[in-house]
Specification:
- The protein has about 220 residues and is of the alpha+beta class.
- Helices cover about 40% and strands about 15% of the residues.
- It has a 5-stranded mixed sheet.
- A hairpin with a 5-residue loop joins β1 and β2.
């Protein structure tokens, strides 16, 4: 377990860095150039997301592995983030309780980290997932107009998903190893459903989706 004093210093450094970045945003309120405000907001988000990833690792190094007897553990952050299953057809399904974030400069690290941790937990419980030579990655968003702020597919952070599965669920993410499909459908509940399946099953997947066949949790 990490030294508590050192852990607190790291937490304070992470949160203070995010606070400093937010100060730049506050200073630009009312500025004549909105692009400056947008850039400052992106930098603040990046700092906070980076801090979240480091804070996750820090928590794991400090907390005991098993809660004390008689104490009910708090809701796991992963439970709040999403869940992983292998459905009856053998396809991996990841459900995220959020939509793909905006991605202007780099794939969002927090999303790659979240998916990696969800996969880690699933493998600890159910065994190692197979590595596919040729896979199809389908990202299917459920949302309404009000809940979706990034409409253009090229502005969504889908690369964070492929980064999380590269070398783990598929050998590589080149165009011959991993095919990508970005889908969306209107729904009052904002969620993101991610599927990884053998490329040979692509026809079955789209047939069942077009027929509204339930194949997800």
């Amino acid at each position: 377990m990490q030294n508590p004093k050192e852990a607190i210093k790291q937490i304070q450094a992470l949160t203070y860095g995010a606070y400093q970045a937010s100060g730049q945003v506050a200073a630009l309120i009312g500025a004549s150039r909105p692009e400056n405000m947008a850039e400052a907001l992106e930098q603040t988000a990046a700092r906070m997301e980076q801090g979240t990833v480091h804070l996750r690792a820090l928590c794991e190094s400090c907390l005991p592995p098993v809660p004390a007897v008689g104490q009910k553990p708090a809701l796991s952050p992963l439970d709040a983030a999403g869940k992983v299953e292998v459905n009856e057809f053998g396809w991996l399904h990841i459900r995220l309780h959020t939509l793909l974030p905006h991605c202007r400069f780099a794939p969002p690290l927090w999303l790659t980290d979240t998916i990696s941790r969800l996969l880690d937990r699933h493998e600890r419980r159910h065994g190692k997932l197979p590595l596919l030579e040729q896979a199809l990655l389908v990202i299917d968003e459920y949302c309404d107009v009000d809940s979706r702020q990034v409409y253009d597919a090229d502005n969504k952070g889908w690369k964070a998903v492929s980064n999380a599965i590269k070398g783990r669920l598929v050998a590589d993410d080149d165009q011959f190893s991993l095919s990508l499909c970005l889908l969306s459908q209107r729904s009052p509940e904002a969620q993101c459903h991610i599927y990884v399946l053998p490329m040979a099953d692509a026809g079955d997947f789209f047939f069942m989706r077009s027929d509204h066949f339930p194949f997800s949790c």
